[in-house]
Amino acid sequence: MSRDEPLVLGIETSCDETGVGIVRGETLLVDAIASSVDLHARFGGVVPEVASRAHLEAMVPTIQRACDQAGIALRDVDAIAVTSGPGLAGTLMVGVAAAKALALSLGKPLYGVNHLAAHVAVDIVEHGPLPEPVLALLVSGGHSSLLLVPDVTQDVRSLGSTIDDAAGEAFDKVARVLGLPFPGGPHIDRAARDGQIAIDFPRGLTSGRDMERHRFDFSFSGLKTAVSRWVEGQRAAGAEISVPDVAASFQEAVVDVLTRKAILACQDNGVEHLQIGGGVAANSRLRAMAQARCDSAGIALRVPRPGLCTDNGAMVAALGAQLVAKGREPSALDLPADSSMPVTEVTA
Amino acid sequence: MSEVIILAFDTSTSAITAAVHDGSRILAEAAVIDTRRHTEALAPMVEKSLQECGLRPADLTHIAVGIGPGPFTGLRVGIVTAVTMGYALGVPVHGICSLDALAAQAVGDVDGELLVASDARRKEVYWARYVSADGSAMRTSEPAVNHPLDLPEEVRALPTVGRGPVLYPEHFRNPRPILDVRAGAIADLAALEIGSGRHTDAVPMYLRRPDAQEPGAPKPTLAGGR
To answer: Domain named Gcp-like: which ranges (chain A) (predicted)?
Structure first.
């Protein structure tokens, strides 16, 4: 790590995690997080107003903690990066306003960055420079996307995304049907370890015609309904339901489609590196199946550690450091929070 | 008090507004009426206001911000900007009740009792009662959020500032021509607070709980299910 490399502070508030990360060049110094996830649990999903209030309360303490743990003074930072979209409008605004306040106070450049590009860039601090191009599978409670990334600082292309529910959303909804707590992902993952893949749930958008029109798109809404119907049908018939079996079978259907399409996207585009990111990348079955299928297809797999897959400030700082290093243009001080920022826009 | 330089702003009403104050007078003040562009407009306005005074952020000794009550999303933009700037610059941040600022703006116009009623959306107003005397307005009721008709008729009949009378002219029949907070008024009140050695934290006055319902049982998906 050289002192000449840019020192960048990144802020992430697109959903329920207040993240402040500090990166020097390609080295992660600190990844401070304050999560409001527990406040949302009883509502069965993230409540934007609850999350926004929590971001405001957590912002300065989290910035302070990040600087303290990194052993840096705020004035040493070379640039401020912030998720400016996509995400929840109200929560994004808290982070964008805080980032501007830092940039303005310190007289440092501001970079509004795309949340999805940041999910790709974070692996730089874990596994080194990104292969160019890399194929990225981003799966979380808000996103399910396949991206072709020739250059994460300026060229991100969307190959496909979910046409209804995000993968993580499906985990949450199925967890509710099974009486498991929010967020559903970790609970289903845990339950599935004791289960058998006993039920053949549908694989959305994988049939012949769909593979023509939606080759790299996903659909998880039908799967969720199929699980609900199956559970209700069993209950109506007075049959005992094995939560581990349903969890394992549902999870297998999601992971099968995600990995199948990701490998196919690599092969179609002649890409030899697949990276997985987003909260669902913490799923143990997804990691295992992706590894097995990449191995047989001769594709190198990169998955950051789970803490860097979920939303965090380090990913924003990691992308910011790349933007500074490559001399990309900073954002203006009238940068908006853009809840529907297109994935093809790396910076705003 | 020339050693005091206060940066003040407010995003709790329909105005996005910023001002610079030296402890005794306003050096610069700006405002734009826009209820949808707080995130975009505030920081450039702050930058420009400082530049107009030939000041840099590092010259600031205090920050003051309107803490509402006001529509949450815009309100938070002002408050998070204030507390983050305060932290970055190492200066104290004073939270000023935005209704107090509106009342202070009415002091020259109204003598005696007055009502502040601002837009709380959902057919409600944020409101508080004041007495204007000797060049200042003293709050005589806690800020609250209500439907206009929840206020007693004699209260609604008081000279009223804020957008309540614009939105509900049938309920507030004594409007005064002061609609939105001016950052200069926030700064004036902050200067008084600083001068008296008091300090109010910049914590938002939401007055409402978040809208959120705990889910019931999952909806059945089978035909004939209940």
So the answer is: 28-317
